[in-house]
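Human: Note token order:
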Amino acid sequence: MLLHTAHLAGLQLFVSCCRAFACHSMESSPDFSLPGDYLLGGLFPLHSGFLQVRHRPEVTLCDRPGTFNDHGYHLFQAMRLGVEEINNSTALLPNVTLGYQLYDVCSDSANVYATLRVLSLQGPHHIKLQGDLLQYSPKVLAVIGTDNTNRAATTAALLSPFLVPLLLEQIQKVNFLLHGDTVMFNDNGNPLSSYNIIAWDWNGPKWTFTVVGSSTWSPVQLDINETKIQWHGKDNQVPKSVCSSDCLEGHQRVVMGFHHCCFECVPCEAGTFLNTSDLYRCQPCGKEEWAPDGSQTCFPRTVVFLGWHEHTSWVLLAANTVLLLLLLGTAGLFAWHLDTPVVRSAGGRLCFLMLGSLAAGSSSLYGFFGEPTWPACLLRQALFALGFTIFLSCLTVRSFQLVIIFKFSTKVPTFYHAWVQNHGAGLFVMISSAAQLLICLTWLVVWTPLPTREYQRFPQLVVLECTEANSLGFILAFLYNGLLSISAFACNYLGKDLPENYNEAKCVTFSLLFNFVSWIAFFTTASVYDGKYLPAVNMLAVLSSLSSGFGGYFLPKCYVILCRPDLNSTEHFQASIQDYTRRRSST
């Protein structure tokens, strides 16, 4: 009901507009008519439209000089012939005479007027608006036309509420003989007829037409006699009729407009290729494949990791092996001279814990070589972080203990005695190492480092790596060691004026600064480079930290033990302490 109301409102608007713009002044009768039992309406453009610019809607008079339309006239005559053939046949519609009313629809306004005319009643020639359109009987039974899409849409919108058809449902049932040919229509209303294919032959003084083929619909067949076709090229050569030339290899066809033969050639992007089965779309390569720009095929990605056989690995392995040998040799040297003043002043048995922690950190470097595995990813960073924490804790507490002995034992004897009686040095190392162990365990559980295959950074490579570098646990462990390094630096700075035999401020400060620089260099490199050799850069930072810690603390003491045994005596150490006492008392 709402749909009918909308259609009626639209029709009233058309009628109002028609009256407002002088539709009433037009001729009230159709251009051509034929009486009959049933009337058909025909809408054909017998004249061309009005092409000038208009500033308001106006009714166009069709019968103007010089505007005759040949195409519309042919359609007009075709309908007249069709109606006459049906009326003259005794088999098609016996005892029934068809009539027609044909209108010239040269413009939109004429089209609306003609449509309203065919909807008018038979007697009073006006349209009666009523609620039940099923009871409405216009004077025409059906309408044929128009040939213009826009005007056809307007006509259909006006006719559909009154249930007037373009004969499409019934035309599919038509099947009759006309001059020996069968006339019938397909589901779309198009005629199924036989055609001759005619070529225009301009050879000789006169132009002629030659039948070069034919098309039939039952059976569906197309026959062309190519020998009868005369081409205008040299030696009757068939001209090449293409909109676009074939694309180069690896270039897809991007259709321009509506026709597939008109296209632009665009190279396939990297990571895609052009399959010859579909020339209009580049297809993506597989996850393990890659392709350059403009490729017709994909190539296997190269799997890369820091292997054992590479020259860079050999250099790092050699340096790490040398460091391990030095640590082992130093441990043996200190064990041999355990009761000497140099070893006792360095921390005594605490030195073995420091050397062992550096060796554990050094052993973690072997997890960076070869294809990443789950155990290697799990231990290589965490083992270094924990080992270096133990070393820094021992270094910090040893420096702090010397400062307490020489500077605060007499000023705050209560704190000094409590520190000694409660084994403050061992307690600090245990608590500090336990805190880092807790961080590492949390890291391994929550942000578990796992071997992964990285596909995004390099289109032609698959980088095998561990996932620890981007995790929060790695950052926390590194920051904790950074805090311990600052603590060790502060304690050594406080002891910069201690007796010469107990003063390692310069060497330890240098080693800690070198540690900071190495890690700053690593993070800077990691921010701009993320390739195959990033693990090697990481190893270099780790190796630098371990070597600087060993070199800054243990190498000076090894030099004294091996090259200056005269300085490794109780008398020399007592003389150094007495000299320090005199200097402090004098100040």
In short: The first strand starts at residue 32 and ends at 34. Residues 311-580 form a domain with the Rhopdopsin 7-helix transmembrane proteins fold (CATH 1.20.1070.10). Residues 240 and 486 are 82 Å apart (CA to CA). Confidence is low (pLDDT under 50) at residues 1-28.
